[in-house]
Design brief:
Order of helices and strands: HEHEEHEHEHHEHEEEEHEHHHH
Shape: elongated
Helix content: 40-55%
Radius of gyration: 38 Å
Structural class: alpha+beta
Number of helices: 12
Oligomer: single chain
Length: about 350
């Protein structure tokens, strides 16, 4: 019987294979069959349709068809009984859960769904964002960190933005100053027209999207493959307050960045100088301002050259002397290389 396992005969007595049907039918007609005839169909022995002849072990005799029918009917009855028991258990469980559901008090705000929901995977995040977009009627607030926005990132949410604009929804977007240099963002804003107002800051918080001040989305991990959907009124109100305060500090995209008051030092370099004074490493500064580490170090080199610093330690001293170690303010005049009487504002 080698080579003829049960894997080749995946059936029961209620549906015999063609070879098993022939051998069993022959055994019923003749009363028995040689054992060698059953070697290709081990299923007949496994299903107890054939069994050895006690008088001659080289022959197999069949189980009577009446007994097989009784066995099949008994098996069907047992399966139906088991199914009925499972259905009964399921009904009882449904009633129990329904009873618990009636005990849950609805949220005071009337908002649907849980106050905090974890969205695992980009597909679920996109689906939840699309749902919130469809329900939005008045306002969308967003914070978009990371410097220059890639074309792919802008295209990803373009269908939602166009749908919102079509319904008269107003949008306010916060970016870092670096985003001003991205053509993709300028094209996006031109396409959206007066439906979107954009402002920029030296640095912003992590990504945030608020719909109608009732639902917010924030990242739940560093690579943004998970997100939190927030509907708790207190949490959403807090995030709206954070956004509004950042918005008041931000500079409209249509307005130029303020002058630093020191010739040769740009607004970005002033921001880098302040972060250096706080003791941050180059990589941290680059991440917070939305630029590459290489670009950050190039700005630091220009700062050192402009301020006449030969080392990082001396640069820190020069930054403090120039008043670049914090908010822009009046500072002690600093004589820079090549300048006789500079004025630091």
């Amino acid at each position: 019987m080698a080579g003829h396992g049960a894997d080749e005969h995946p059936h029961g007595a209620d549906r015999l294979c063609e070879a098993g049907d022939r051998v069993y039918s022959r055994a019923v007609r003749r009363g028995r069959v040689p054992r060698r005839d059953a070697e290709p169909v081990p299923c007949l022995l496994e299903l107890a349709l054939l069994h050895p002849d006690p008088d001659d072990m080289d022959w197999l005799v069949p189980t009577s068809p009446q007994e097989v029918m009784t066995r099949l009917l008994r098996g069907m009855h047992d399966e139906v009984s088991a199914s009925q028991r499972r259905v009964g258990s399921a009904v009882a469980a449904v009633e129990w859960y329904a009873g618990l559901g009636r005990q849950v008090r609805p949220a005071a705000s009337g908002a649907e769904g849980p106050a905090i929901r974890v969205l695992d995977g980009l597909a679920r995040i996109q689906a939840a964002m699309d749902e919130a977009t469809q329900a939005c009627t008045t306002e969308v607030l967003t914070v978009q960190p990371g410097g220059i926005r890639r074309e792919a990132e802008l295209s990803e949410g373009l269908h939602r933005a166009l749908a919102l604009r079509g319904r008269g929804v107003r949008m306010r977007d916060l970016y870092t100053h670096v985003a001003r240099h991205g053509q993709g963002l300028l094209t996006y804003l031109e396409l959206m027209g007066d439906a979107v107002e954009a402002r920029t800051l030296d640095e912003v918080i992590d990504r945030l999207i608020l719909f109608d001040r009732t639902v917010a989305f924030i990242p739940a991990n560093s690579d943004r493959t998970m997100a939190l959907e927030l509907r708790h009124p207190a949490l959403v109100a807090y995030l709206v307050t954070v956004f509004d305060r950042l918005w008041r500090l931000a500079i409209p995209l249509t307005a130029p960045l303020p002058d630093t008051g020191i010739e040769g030092i740009s607004h970005r370099e002033q921001s880098i100088a302040a972060l250096l004074a706080e003791g941050h490493q180059d990589a941290v500064i680059a991440e917070r301002l939305g630029i590459s580490v290489r670009t950050c170090r190039a700005h630091i080199a220009r700062l050192s050259e402009t301020l006449g610093a030969a080392s990082r330690t001396q640069l820190g001293v020069r930054i403090a002397q120039a008043g670049l170690d914090g908010p822009q303010r009046s500072a002690t005049p600093l004589t820079l290389p090549g300048q006789e009487s500079p004025s630091v504002r």
